[in-house]
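Appendix B. One record, verbatim.
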Amino acid sequence: MSRINQIERLTQGRFFLGTRWRETREFLGRADDAEMEVTALELNRTYTITHHKAGVRIDAKFAFAEMDGGTKVSVEFGMGHDGLPPGLLTPVEWAIASTVRGVLTDDLNDLKDSIEKVAGRSTVD
């Protein structure tokens, strides 16, 4: 992931329900730390990563489906107000959602490029 500068594992063992890590990534032109946790997992099908920061909860659900000799990866995300008064973030939710959408799009493109490089294929949309 080109935007991620560092990852620190906070739990040991395999990637599974409850796995936690701290990542540092470029966000709005500066380094930003975030603690992530796998909060849902259906092996080889889907997993959800949850991130809490500044009173906002973001859940990103990654889904994998076989498709034409490959795998289709999709991401859905949702936001919640983690202890903040209702309506406080409403004026800026669209901006937060747009930023998260851009970060996830970049991450998926990086993942696709990495997989195709390992598989010896060129990048095709």
